[in-house]
Each structure stands twice: as structure tokens, then as C-alpha cells.
Amino acid sequence: MESGNHSWGTDFILVGLFQYGQMDALLFTVIAILFAVALLGNITLVLLIRLDRRLHTPMYFLLSQLSIIDMMYISTTVPKMAANFLSDTNIISFLGCEIQAFMFMILAGSEALLLGFMSYDRYIAICRPLHYPVLMSRKICCSMVSCAWSSSSFNALVHMLYTFHLPFCGSRIVNHFFCELPSLLPLVCEDTSQYEHTILMCSLIILLLPFLAILASYARVLVVVFQMRSGKGQSRAMSTCSSHLTVASMFYATGLSTYTQPNSLHSAARDKVLAVFYSIVTPVLNPFIYSLRNKEVMGALRRQLG
């Protein structure tokens, strides 16, 4: 494979989760099962929200958008990853790598922003219920979704146009299981320290700000809930908030840990483990966290099953 500046015909080699074919069969089975579970869970949730009129509310509209994002999100990385488990080459084309990184950044950013909007929805519903129909109207919900998609798309486009016009030289081996921005920067021939500051600022805006908004929203919700006299209501709110916060914290904490560190401090093994959590585990858990603990969704499921 030739060294020097990249060209559109130059391929990358994805190392995968483990080097030298370790545990390929077991990993392929586990990843395939997780992928199937994620698709089944999210498709079921989208169909339930679409078919049951009782779920035609702002909260479930946002939840259906989250499920759609999760299906696309996990489909961006897992099929290629699973194919690599069965392949001896693990090659991805330059254009394929660019498309994968671009789509991943769009979907990850959209999910990060949408989770923040969903926490705002719960805050309004519990803390300002009389204003809920106005503050969470159909128009505002659509604006939230549009904002999440457009903001993350613009962010991804800027990074992809810049990153993939940098000179890649020497090794074309990407020590990761998919094309992700931090894993590509070590292959660049020039100093990227200034660009890393840009990545840090974008990560703080897209990941940290929504996470802080979620923490603030749920803190306010818990204050209001604990002022209620219903012990059952308190326990239910605590159960719901804790499960939501657990999944959100895992998504944001692992993402921030990867995207806010300078390139010199990155560990390939650590980055791959963290990426498993925010790119695979989160899309698998989301539909179950937001549905199995929700009586309205389970009621809709029972009604659809007759």
C-alpha cells in the first residue's frame, strides 16, 4: 500500500475490537444478537407509538425519533463490524470511511441533543403542567427534532470536510472497529493540536451542555416530586429518573471521555471499549429503558397483541 497523501482510491484497514483474529466467532455472535435486539426493540417502539393513538403525545413523538436515530446509529457501525469478523482483509474504502464517520457524527450528535430535549419535556410536564400544551406543542416538538438534526449535520459536515482533506500518510491501519474521528487523527502527517481544540469545543457544546441540562432538569423534577405526599409517586419517579439518568450518563460520559482528550492521551484499547458503550450498548438499552418501565407503552403493546 503506497504511502503519501491520500487519494480517493486509497483504502483503510480496520483492526477491529481485537487484533489478530482473537475471539472472532464469539464476538460475531454477541454483536449480531445485540444488533438484532436493538432493531427489534426500536422498531417495536416506533410501531407502537405510530399505531396507538394514546401515545400520540409530545413525549412519545420525541421517543419515536430517538428510536429512529438509534436504529440508524447502530446500523452505521455494526454491519461493517460484523462483516469484518468474517473477513480476512477488514478493508474499508476511503469514501466508505468518510461516509461512515460522517453518518456516525450526525447520529451521535442528534441523539445527544435529542436526549436533552426529552429531559426538558419531562421537566415541563412535571414542574409546569399547566403550560405543557403551549410549551410542548407539535410545532415546538418538530422544531426540537429539526434543531437536533440540522445542528449535528452541520457539525459533522465541517469536521468531515476538514479531516478528510488532511494528508494521511504512512500507515493506513485504523486501530478501531469503525472510522471515528479520534482514531483517524493519528494517521495524519501534520500537527493536529489546534484542530483538537476545535473538537474539544464542539464536544463540550454537543455533549456536555445537553448532559448538564438533563442533570438540571431531573434535579428540579425530583425536588417537585419529593414535595408530593404520594409515596407511590415518589418511588415511581425515582425509578424512572434513575433508569433514564443511568443510560444517559453512560452515553455522555463515555462520549466525553473519548472526544475531550488530546490525541496524545488516547489509548486505542480504551477508546474501543468506550465506543462499544455509546455506539452499541446505548441503542440496545434505550427502547427497553423507556418502554419496559412505562405502563402506557406496555398497555399499548398488550392492546396491539389483542
Report on the architecture of this protein:
This protein is 72% helix and 3% strand. The protein has helices at 24-51, 58-85, 94-127, 132-135, 138-163, 181-184, 193-226, 231-259, 268-291, 295-304; strands spanning 11-14, 91-93, 173-174. The protein is mostly helical and 306 residues long. The longest helix has 34 residues, at 94-127. The N and C termini lie far apart (60 Å). α1 (24-51) packs across α10 (295-304). The protein is globular and about 65 Å long. The chain has ten helices and three strands.
**What is the quaternary state of this protein?**
single chain
The succession of helices and strands, N to C, reads EHHEHHHEHHHHH
> How far from one another are the termini?
60 Å
CA-atom Rg in angstroms: 21 Å
Gross morphology is: globular
Q: Strand share of the residues? A: under 5%
- Summarize the biggest pleated sheet: 3 strands, mixed
Helix content: over 70%
Give the integer mean of the pLDDT values.
87
DSSP, total strands: 3
Tell me the structural class. Answer: mainly alpha
Number of helices: 10
Q: Identify low-pLDDT runs.
A: 1-9
What order do the strands of the largest sheet run in, or round the barrel if closed? 2-1-3
